[in-house]
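Q: Please design a sequence for this.
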């Protein structure tokens, strides 16, 4: 699942490649992905792309005062195309959800027609596209907590102080802190040497400071590695930088202990017992529920 660093990198990529180009048209291949109808998608045809940015894990393409906003969700991705077929795709088949055709930039006569595909792997179709006049018209953006890359230490301490849940859940709840998902929350907790099951509101001021620094360092490092990567190589760049996430059974790069996993109904978390839980194995909740 793309998180803050990958979305930041996609926004940087679009600033370089899409800005100044004129929208030719959009093709919708998965009608369920489009969440808004006013303004209609045809409203962007003929308008110039003016910017690209990020709200939490939402990608924002600014088109002359309108915002084409995408939430890639779990299996979604953006694929830049130097050449796009002018033939509209057949709806409802394959991973393609949405396609944007962009004309060459006016001041760059060598440019060809290009654009991007929004695709979604798997059977759960949750990729979402919104065309709005104000990003705050997207409910998921209006609900976002402070951004993980912009929150101050004081604000972060205040936010955590009000949360009685476990750190893993708190860090990944977008209305609490925006931008962090399953992978980077594992990485941040590992860097902070904190248990994913520690209760947020019970952290000492020192632990909050350590967690804050780990969050900033982990995300800054990931953004630096991701920005400048082509959209196509972002996923492997993300994988190569991970210490514990998706590394069950492999050695922890810090202490050499074996990375462990806790499974939930539809996801899992990874952690290092020596670094994070005083050597203790955390209960597998799915298993312990069966045993009871
Ligand atoms: Zn370790």
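A: Design:
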């Amino acid at each position: 699942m793309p998180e803050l660093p990958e979305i930041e990198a996609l926004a940087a990529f679009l600033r370089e490649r899409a800005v100044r180009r004129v929208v030719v048209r959009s093709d919708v291949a998965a009608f369920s992905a489009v969440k808004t109808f006013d303004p209609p998608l045809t409203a962007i045809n003929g308008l110039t792309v003016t910017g690209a940015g990020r709200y939490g894990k939402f990608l924002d393409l600014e088109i002359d005062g309108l915002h084409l906003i995408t939430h890639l969700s779990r299996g979604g991705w953006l694929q830049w195309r130097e050449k796009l077929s002018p033939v509209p795709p057949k709806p409802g088949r394959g991973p393609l959800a949405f396609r944007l055709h962009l004309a060459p930039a006016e001041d760059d006569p060598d440019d060809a027609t290009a654009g991007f595909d929004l695709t979604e792997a798997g059977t759960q179709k949750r990729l979402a596209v919104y065309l709005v006049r104000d990003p705050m018209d997207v409910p998921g953006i209006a609900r976002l907590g402070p951004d993980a890359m912009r929150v101050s230490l004081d604000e972060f301490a205040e936010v955590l102080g009000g949360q009685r849940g476990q750190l893993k859940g708190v860090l990944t709840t977008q209305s609490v802190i925006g931008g962090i998902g399953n992978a980077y929350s594992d990485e941040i907790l590992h860097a902070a040497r904190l248990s994913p099951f520690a209760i947020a509101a019970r952290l000492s001021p020192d632990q909050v400071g350590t967690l804050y620094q780990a969050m900033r360092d982990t995300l800054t490092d990931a953004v630096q590695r991701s920005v400048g990567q082509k959209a196509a190589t972002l996923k492997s760049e993300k994988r190569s930088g991970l210490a514990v996430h998706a590394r069950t059974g492999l050695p922890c790069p810090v202490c050499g202990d074996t990375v462990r996993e806790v499974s939930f109904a539809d996801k899992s978390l990874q952690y290092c017992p020596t670094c994070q839980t005083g050597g203790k194995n955390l209960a597998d909740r799915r298993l312990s529920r069966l045993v009871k």
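Q: Thanks. Anything notable?
A: The first helix runs from residue 4 to 17. The mean pLDDT is 92.
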